[in-house]
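tool=predict chain=A
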Amino acid sequence: MAAGDVLRTPAARFADLSDFPFTPRYLELQDARLGALRMAAIDEGPRAAPVALLLHGEPTWSYLYRRIIPAITRAGFRAVAPDFIGFGRSDKLARRGDYSYDAFVKWLGEFVTALDLKRVTLVCQDWGGPIGLRVLGEQPQRFAAVLAANTLLPTCEPPPRGVAQWPGALIENWVATAAAADDLPVSGIIAAVCRTPPAAPALQAYDAPFPDASYKSGVLAFPGLIPIRPDMAGIAENRRAWAQLEQFERPFVTAFSDSDPTTAPWAEVFRRRIPGAAGQPHPVIANAGHFLQEEQGEALAEVLVALLHRAS
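tool=predict ok
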């Protein structure tokens, strides 16, 4: 237990994780209301090399990238995979209401600044997109490329701005489900949206950050922060991020899976609106659901390493 309204998962919960031999590094962030918050990350590879910033989403953590990190470092690049506050080894806020979309953006922006990450290829899936692309919009000079996979950046604008500006019924139903819940089965959620459910040791690793429901306020809060109405927090900021993205001429690659109806239309939105997407390969990752890193990590790693070489 950290001071006040912050929880810290006991380290013993992360002992002997399956296929995850990486040593965590910790960074202390200062929150104006909550004080010091500890943010965890995997940081592997040469310090001076171009960086792959690997962002997870709901309800996963950096464990999601365990098959991708070795491919990055073997190719001579640096892999940085943070755990958002509320997830993984990072501190967790006790109250659902203490989380906000802006807070997640602020925490990640401070993380990127504190590590002084440069020549960054942003890898964003699920909430990694709405958070990471906002940070790119605020600090575009740090980013050399983007790999977007099963993600979105909603603004509640109708076509012709894109083909999927509204998140859609599947996301709205997920928002309603989380809002009504006092607990959520983390590993069960992950297994349900994979084409092939992960093996038991992996599912146990996804549950590891959450000894009980009191640690899951971030898991419960995340869905309700998706800006699905024009009056919601984040809409104006997302539109400003899009204004930056529509000037982003560095490589922007979409690598969505073939079996994720929740986000599938957004691949075309990114390709239509971002100049850096022109002329890039935009593969569809076969035989994967929402968490394509889990099911097809090697295939996604191949796309990423090729992009890192082009962006270097």
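The chain has one domain: 6-311. Strands lie at 6-7, 24-31, 35-44, 51-55, 78-82, 92-93, 120-126, 143-151, 252-254.
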